Amino acid sequence: MENLLFINACVRGERSRTLKLARRFLEGYQKAHPDTVITQRDLCAQRLQPQYPEVLAERDELWAAGKLDQPMFEPAREFAAADKIVVAAPFWDLCFPAVLKIYLERISVTDVTFGYDDQGAMVGLCRASKLLYVVTRGGNYAGTDLEMGTPMLRALCAMYGIPELITLATEGLDDVRQDKQALLDAALLRADALAGEF
Ligand SMILES: Cc1cc2nc3c(=O)[nH]c(=O)nc-3n(C[C@H](O)[C@H](O)[C@H](O)COP(=O)(O)O)c2cc1C
Fold first, then answer.
1. What is the domain class of 3-197 according to CATH?
2. Fewer CB in 10 Å around end: N or C, the chain?
3. Overall average pLDDT of the 98-105 stretch
4. E strand or H helix that includes residue 130
5. Where are the domains of the chain?
6. Of ligand 1's atoms, which has the minimum distance to the CA of residue 174?
7. pTM over 0.90
């Protein structure tokens, strides 16, 4: 049975347009793939600690002892085992909210989500074939050097061994000249179409 992991970094909760877009995709995906088990991790509810010195020290100690089965590494194990992954995060300060960065730091565990081969080359250990990044932006940044969310996640997908990153984005939502509802409605239709293909 396929399992899809949904990482929800939509800090504004029910007011989030990114979450609305992600949920629309997930509803369509579930309809198209009724057997898929979708597991949500709400990062604002989960509140993983940043890697402050004591957190990192505990992590280093457990890792050095080979205790990769400890709860500390559960998010990384879950991420590594997912067949498909959806990450929903608003565009903040040209990238994404810190809660997502904290999560990514916590799941980037050597010998769980990535490792190294005999030659010292990095090898991805994640099972997922695809990662979908759902994002809404206030301004227009797609395809510019200022948009740092997609490149960051693309690089991490390479590290994790996830072959495909797809970005579902809508932008200009805080531009007063734009019809916000029309932009969002168009994105929701793109989410419907993608749900059948992803
Ligand atoms: C803390 C914060 C930082 C933001 N930074 C940017 C930014 O750098 N560029 C941009 O275009 N929009 C920025 N925005 C606007 C959001 O990207 C936009 O409103 C988005 O649709 C919010 O998504 P949400 O409705 O899912 O929360 C920012 C919003 C917040 C709250």
1. alpha beta
2. N
3. 98
4. strand 130-136
5. 3-197
6. 19
7. yes
